Amino acid sequence: MITWCAQANISVSYANNVCTVTSEGKSLELQLTPPCNLVKIDYKDHDYFQYEDSNVFIVAGKPAPLTKVAKWSVTEADNCSLQSQAVMVTDGKVQLSAVRQDALTCPDIGLDEKVYRDFFDNMMTK
Length: 126
Description:
Shape: globular
Helix content: 10-25%
Order of helices and strands: EEEEEEEHEEEH
Distance between the termini: 32 Å
Number of helices: 2
Largest sheet: 6 strands, antiparallel
Structural class: mainly beta
């Protein structure tokens, strides 16, 4: 089941309790609890930020129970997760970040650009 496609030729899907990201025919398993959703960027016409020649996407894991995210004034309909992972695509090569736990990530609300930049900086220092 494909859950989202981005304009930079990646797709996020989940099947058999595994989330997968696919780019240019190559698939990698995400370390997130399904279902997974690509985080949108509401004021852009794409779902990633570009740094140098890399596109950085963020994928949210399974929505957390409202009792765990209520302190942030979000609703159940926001599908917020406390789990996210970045996907960086550079010259057709896909790289995954470590999973970030306990950080509010709402696919339909989006994230500040500095979160994308932080993932990018951490992935470049690997």
